User: Fold these one by one.
Assistant:
Number 1:
Amino acid sequence: MIYDSDCHIGGQRIFDDQCNNEVMNGYSPTDGPATKRPAEGLRERRRRETQRELSDAAIELFEKHGVTGTTVDEIAELAGTSPRTFFRYFPTKEAAVLQPTEDSESMLKAVSAAVVSGDPLLRALENTWLAQIAWFDSRPEEHDRALRVRRLVGQEPTLLALALRTEADQVDALTATATDAAGADSDALTARAAIGIVFLIVRLAFDEWARRAEIGTSASVREIYLEIRRSTAAMSDQLGDSVST
């Protein structure tokens, strides 16, 4: 099964020696195509700028007035555009502060392409996440914005609900991709467990990064991720086949 080889969970280990050695001992996906955004033309660049301006306006207004105290009209006005333009980019005002839909879709496409070409699911998913993490680590100008968004998500129930629902949708989509690629050998439960493990480690890594950043401690999300990953692999070793059936 695609999700039960190399970096597997179907047996007694979550990450095997080959997978651990690649990630822990110098392997880096940051040279791969997943970390390089395609060259943008003027129209695409302006589209991204408008999307960012709307998102920045939403963050600023949510911080001042809360989600319920802010309207789409106010967000559009602050960004210097119209409500009609706003809805070309975001379906709701809450969506404006979270990861753009096309970024999520790009991640899913990258994982899907790797899995379909024969890569194990865990490796494909982890490489894609590590590429995104490397991009984030290399751009300190994004860090303050990330902290502001995380604070809002922690304070606003509607944002938290949307963030959780978005992650659940990503897990569903990746599970479907994995089971489709595995064909007759598909095991949706095992695929979902594998995907859930990686998503959990990534979430914990960003949570810990944010905790340290809030107290003024510099940290790398990638290094925190690898730290948690080592612990996860160690726990898998300790568990082994100890559970009786």
Number 2:
Amino acid sequence: AEAAEAAEAAEAAEAAEAAEAAEAAEAAEAAEAAEAAEAAEAADSFKELKEIGALEALEEVEELEVLEELEVLEELEVLEELEELEALQENEELEILDVIEEVEELEILEDIEELEVLDEVEVLEEVASGGFAASLNVDAELEEAEFYLQQGLYDDAQRVIQTLMEHRPELPELQAKLNEISEKRQLEESSEESVDFVDIMADIQDDELFGATDFLGALDPATDADDAFTLNLATDLDSEDTESHYNLGIAYKEMDLYDDAIEEFEKAIKDPVRLIDCISLIGQCHMASGAHEAAMATFRDGLSQETLSDEGRMTLNFEMGLLFKMDGQVLEALETFQLVAEKDSFFRDVGEIIKGLRKELGLEDEGSEDNGPQGNRDRVSYV
């Protein structure tokens, strides 16, 4: 029994040791499992950390790219602002240059006026000092007297000749010119009736004019001689009396009777003194009546005359330039006006007209300073 009990006790002890070994094995397995779990968790954490680091790196790269783009945009904006500032500065400089040019033009004009005033003062000083006779330009004075004579300003023409005779009485052509003035004055006084008729016609209103025309056509042929002379004076003028035809043509033109005016100017054109005036006025009558082709033909015919003077050529070219401009032929008008400016850049403000035409054509201005010939700026034509 004791042996059995000892055997049982030994078995129980072995069973306890086996149980303790099993428990130790289970504890070791649990520890290994825990370590494996911790290792897995550590791996997961490391992986998560790597992913977070990659995301942060990507975000930093994107932020850098955005910053670079912003810097590029800011640089572009700065460049654009600089370009705008440069453009504004250039415009301001151009405006300043324009102002300077205008000031220079004004100074040039003032200088020219001062020179003219000085010339007049010098002439007055020469008169005051008794040097007038020595400085007297006989040819220029005779030309001025001839101009007054052509315009019918007999008193002015006579005054110029008498002044010359006071200082240069030895010149025989002065007395001849004085006689010519007297003869033309008498001729005009002898044609006062025709001039009176022109004045009456100019005062008649349009309705009255048509009524008077009907009345003249309805008169009986047996009208007495004085009335017949008065009524037919406009059409029965002596063909040699060119001045009367010219005056009558002026009156018709002022009353818009262009056909009648042209007829009178064509009669007056026989006088060489009135040649350019008549050609210009005939062309103007054609222009006013809308016959622009006829006006152009008139000016071209006038320019084709070999005996045409420089002043006459300038006058006809100027009229033709006005016709081109009226027809909208701006380039042709510019070329024609430039022909005038080549002779006299002050002729009837041709310089200002050329400036306007060049601006209309979009051409650069050749400059405000006129370097062309200046001609006789003091002479005023009938126009």
